[in-house]
């Protein structure tokens, strides 16, 4: 109800992220609407995850402490 009210009172047509959109995003994250069901990671056999340590070592030339 609050999202509908915010959209009516402050539609934010010229804003990149209007207030009501943040409210809608937050609601969807906390009530589970944004949960992914199937990731299909098996389709990408050659995929190798990169750790944060590996990424930082490329940018800083050494492993972080």
Question: What would the principal axes of the Cα set say about the shape?
Answer: elongated
As a percent range, the share of helical residues equals 40-55%
Question: What is the structural class?
Answer: mainly alpha
Radius of gyration: 20 Å
Query: Segments where pLDDT lies below 50 for 5+ residues?
Result: none
- Helix and strand element order: HHH
What is the makeup of the main sheet?
none
Give the termini distance in whole angstroms: 48 Å
How many helical stretches? 3
Question: How much β-strand is present in the residues?
Answer: under 5%
Mean pLDDT across residues: 83
Count of individual beta strands: 0
Furnish the topology, listing elements before pairings.
Layout: H1 2-9, H2 19-31, H3 52-60
Protein model, in words:
The protein is an all-alpha fold and 65 residues long. The protein has a domain of 35 residues. The chain has three helices and no strands. Helix 1 runs antiparallel to helix 2. The radius of gyration is 20 Å and the shape is elongated. The model has no long low-confidence stretch (mean pLDDT 83).
In short:
With 65 residues, the protein is mostly helical.
Spell out the key features of this protein.
3 helices; 65 residues; single chain; mainly alpha; 0% strand
